[in-house]
């Protein structure tokens, strides 16, 4: 074989090896690691807030899954591992996350977004009501906080984050208008709920919430009798419950007033649509 043929063969092999290496590098960048920011959120509604702003640039893990109560849920080992690897934690605050120290201990470098910071909290029995996400005003502020942190950690996509935030806030404004229009269809402004979840929602829309629970505990027979009296005096025929709690006491009251029980979910992951559903169910239950 001549020298020229050897050189040609060597050159072809070198080209093939180079192509293979380049192809491999490209492949690993596409199919391997992702640049998405790992975000953990305490409750399902926050997942929509983060996804609306971050889109494909975020990878979200919900710590308390839909259907579970954040007041009692214990984090699983797999969830703790997710928390350990996260960059951002969107937390509710106001004492809702009783397991917060566990998260902070496994990830001391976590950037924490506390939705409750700067919020006008509602005093309940000497403490503060933690159900702040059920206010659209709080939601808009929370989305703004999320946007600021994402832009700080990932300035390359800041224009995208701001544009997404503006679009989602506009959606929340539309939901706000829809809720007001729905509730304007009834002149009833008082409702009875088993768990005192709806203080912020009630404040935003001029409603009065009567709670069956007492300070987050099972009601006494005397309190149940008092709630029944309120229901009769105000022509209330529906007791609102949540899928995360027992309905036994609510059913007892409903039977006594010749009424019924309706379920509304404060923790649905489809936040905006669910807020509209909540308003429609309340209107239906209050009458009008």
- Main β-sheet, in a few words? 4 strands, parallel
CATH top-level class of the largest domain: Alpha Beta
| Contiguous uncertain segments of 5+ residues | 1-32
Number of strands: 10
Distance between the amino and carboxyl termini = 97 Å
Which fold does the CATH topology of the largest domain refer to? Answer: Rossmann fold
Strand content: 5-15%
Short recap of the structure:
By secondary structure, the chain is of the alpha/beta class. Helices cover about 50% and strands about 15% of the residues. The strands form 3 sheets. Strands 2-1-3-4 form a 4-stranded parallel beta sheet, with helices on both faces.
List the helices and strands and how they pair.
Elements (H helix, E strand, L loop, with lengths): L2 H29 L5 E5 L2 H11 L3 E5 L14 H9 L2 E4 L8 H7 L4 E4 L8 E2 L2 E2 L7 H18 L4 H26 L6 E4 L5 H7 L2 E4 L9 H13 L4 E4 L6 H9 L3 E4 L7 H16 L2
Helix pairs in contact: 2-5, 2-6, 5-6, 6-10, 8-9
């Amino acid at each position: 074989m001549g020298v020229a043929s050897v050189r040609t063969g060597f050159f072809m092999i070198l080209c093939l090896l180079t192509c293979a290496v380049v192809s491999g590098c490209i492949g690993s960048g596409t199919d391997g690691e992702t640049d998405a920011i790992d975000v953990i959120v305490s409750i399902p509604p926050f997942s929509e807030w983060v996804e609306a702003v971050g889109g494909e640039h975020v990878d979200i893990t919900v710590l308390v899954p839909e259907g579970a109560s954040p007041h009692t849920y214990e984090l699983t080992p797999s969830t703790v591992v997710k928390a350990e690897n996260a960059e951002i934690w969107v937390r509710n605050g106001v004492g809702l996350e009783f397991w917060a120290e566990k998260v902070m201990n496994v990830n001391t470098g976590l950037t924490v977004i506390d939705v409750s910071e700067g919020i006008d909290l509602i005093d309940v029995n000497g403490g503060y009501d933690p159900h702040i996400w059920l206010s659209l005003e709080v939601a808009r502020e929370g989305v703004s906080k999320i946007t600021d942190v994402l832009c700080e950690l990932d300035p390359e996509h800041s224009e995208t984050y701001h544009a997404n935030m503006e679009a989602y806030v506009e959606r929340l404004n539309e939901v706000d208008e829809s809720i007001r229009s729905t509730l304007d269809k009834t002149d009833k402004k008082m409702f009875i709920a088993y768990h005192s979840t709806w203080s912020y929602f009630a404040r935003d829309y001029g409603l009065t919430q009567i709670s069956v629970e007492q300070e987050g505990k099972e009601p006494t027979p005397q309190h149940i009798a008092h709630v029944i009296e309120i229901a009769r005096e105000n022509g209330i025929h529906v007791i609102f419950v949540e899928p995360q709690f027992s309905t036994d006491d609510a059913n007892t009251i409903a039977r006594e007033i010749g009424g019924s029980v309706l379920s509304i979910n404060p923790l649905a992951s489809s936040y905006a649509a669910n807020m509209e559903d909540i308003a429609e169910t309340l209107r239906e239950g209050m009458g009008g």
